[in-house]
Write a structure and sequence with these properties.
four-stranded antiparallel beta sheet; 4 strands
């Protein structure tokens, strides 16, 4: 008589009663079957292959993604610089009556690129190829700039450079000099 079976189930009166009785944990045939199943799972060659593949490829994928993010940041900085230089060029094109349009244009470039370090932006300006200083005020505090008072129809050029670096995981690989320039006709 098997352990855990009622007398009715252990009696071989019904067909298949021996089969039902062998399903219990105490059955040595079941232990052999369970052990063989566990052994086949642990010793199979196909199990764990996906984990190995992930362990090999994940660092490479993360390195590539971080490089893409770093390059995207440099591109975003370039776009900020280009927009700021564009705003300053538009300002100089219409600022003939302002007291110090050069200083205002430099301030526009710095204010127009909030994601960039202000001390690292180098702004250059020229009027018909002649370099302009960072400040070009009028003689008195209320006078318009003498530089731009008679500059209608002339070409003003504003340019800026910004030094940044590409890095992945605290390693700096290269230094980039981002530059942008715009030319406008003074109105």
């Amino acid at each position: 008589m098997k352990v855990g079976l009622s007398e009715r189930e252990s009696a071989p009166t019904e067909e298949g009663a021996e089969f039902r009785a062998s399903k219990f944990i105490g059955d040595p045939q079941m232990k052999h079957s369970l052990v063989s199943r566990v052994r086949s799972l642990l010793l199979s060659d196909s199990e764990g292959g996906a984990i190995i593949e992930i362990a090999v490829t994940l660092p490479l994928v993360m390195l590539i993604m971080t490089g893409i993010f770093s390059f995207s940041l440099a591109l975003y900085q370039k776009l900020q610089l280009a927009e700021a230089v564009s705003n300053a060029g538009h300002y100089l094109a219409v600022a003939r009556g302002d007291h110090d349009p050069c200083a205002n244009a430099v301030a526009d470039v710095i204010a127009g690129a909030p994601g960039l370090t202000a001390n690292s932006i180098v702004v250059t300006m020229s009027l018909n190829g002649t370099a302009l200083p960072q400040s070009c005020p009028g003689i008195k505090a209320t006078d318009p700039s003498s530089t731009f008072a008679s500059a209608q129809g002339e070409t003003v050029t504003v340019g800026a450079t910004y030094v940044t670096s590409l890095g992945v995981y605290q390693s700096q690989y290269s230094t980039l000099t981002l530059a942008s320039q715009i030319s406008e006709i003074v109105q």
